[in-house]
Design a protein that fits this description.
Blueprint lengths: L2 H6 L6 H12 L5 H8 L3 E6 L2 E6 L2 H22 L5 E6 L20 H19 L28 H12 L8 E4 L6 H15 L5 E5 H13 L3 H6 L6 E5 L8 H16 L3 E6 L11 H7 L3 E4 L5 H15 L5 H10 L4 H18 L5 H11 L10 H6 L6 H12 L3 H5 L5 H18 L3 H7 L5 H14 L4 H13 L3
Helix pairs in contact: 2-4, 6-7, 8-10, 12-13, 12-14, 13-15, 17-19, 19-21, 20-21
The structure holds adenosine-5'-diphosphate and magnesium ion.
The site of adenosine-5'-diphosphate has 16 residues, from helix 7 and helix 14.
Length: about 500
Amino acid sequence: MCFGHIQFIQLPMSEKELWVSVLRRLQPTINKANFITWFQNTGVLSSGNGKMVVGLPTEYAKTWILSKYALKVLQAIQEIDAEVTEVNYEVSSKLNEEGNLVAVNVKTLFGAEEEKKVRKVRNINEITMTRGASGQKINSQMINGRYSLNNFIVGHENRLPHAACQAVSNAPGGIYNPLYIYGSVGLGKTHLIQAVGNQILKNFPDMVVKYITAEKFVSEVVEAIGKRHMKQFKDQYRNVDCFLIDDVQFFARKDSSQQEFFHTFNELYERNKQIILTSDRPPSELQEMDERLKSRFGMGMVTELLFPSFEARSAILHQKCREHGLILDPEVLDFIANNVHTSVRELEGVLKQVIAESQLFDRVTTIRSVAEIIKRMNKAQEIIGYDIEARTGKTLARDAMAVMGIVAEYFNVTVDQIIGKDRHKGVMLPRHISMYLIKNELSESYEKIGLEFGGRNHTTVMHACNKTADKLRKDLRLVRDINAIKREMGL
Ligand code: ADP
Ligand code: MG
């Protein structure tokens, strides 16, 4: 026995400590929202012999990390442990379970400093929006911090307005002044104009940004006239550096407001202050609007927002799912993208409805259920890629045996194996899925299902169903499998 020897043994860093150090290195190089989205509940599953297996809670995280951050992760690991030369990724939905000992809650990595910084930035926005650098009170509507130029999906239909917004954010009062963005309802005008406001405040924290809808401007003019506060009203705009006015078509027939706006516009423009306007139509088509205003609106850059292409619509849906931390079958998202032809707002509306229903009924969303939602929301529309009538006519798998048959075929096993006692993973999954589908789609009791499965206890069945339902919240692969099987079942 040699105590001296013991003294020199260095306690190795635990795998969790190591991963925390890696995350600490990565965190400053990745934007906070992305960092939280993709690295939350990740951890090291195993390591040794120069290899490391990193566990990720969802298939989505794996796809993203592999395509975007794999190199960064490897570099960060090697900075801590130079021996590691190979990093593999494995999906383990267990990481999302509460109390999992491997998973790291990345939110704890943002120390007090970071918290303070985030809060400070938010305060600056709020103060600048309402008070301005000089401290003078500005009566402005709030800008929604959710809208940014980064989370605006760019397709070829909106590349130009987006680029113009980017240019204006970098150099307000420059060549694109005024910037006039038009397009029909729900195509992202408010998103873009407010995103510019957010970006300008980020780039130039001392600037005063004022956002207001034309409707609110009109009501303020009316109020100022009534209370004889015209001077105070005008003073509000004196030290504005960037004036964002949304939906100027609303000025039609509001003569006094047009006049007031004309003066405000001129004053700001002459002092090279940035003006951004949005509208549902180009300046030349604005009705009952002072010609002088129309010509001023068109003096700088006029750009149109168009309805996004299928690819952009699909990208928007994927992004909204990420923002909400949700997993939906990509096929379902494409189906929605294919069937919404009016606006991005409607696209979001359908998605929200789909999410609400899937949470309410705790069911996997299928193309059939989405088709029904779309039909309900927009009765006249023909649905592409799905024939509801034909599907409804199709015989449904109505008994347990039929369901097991379809599941067995899908997984390439036999019905006997599904019913049997084998606990091999390859048959456990089809068994659990069969039980889950029989319970949820045929509404059979746990007891009855237990009997169908060779006299199993009802608690066993209940456990399998709950486990599957739980996995469905995290496992994209399983969502896809169940969707495909449901289609086979005529659902
Ligand atoms: P508008 O002001 O033109 O009526 P909004 O700006 O209110 O439309 O947009 C409606 C919704 O669609 C918003 O939630 C917005 O974030 C979203 N949206 C529109 N276009 C895009 C896009 N290209 N990328 C991401 N979200 C978008
Ligand atoms: Mg709007």
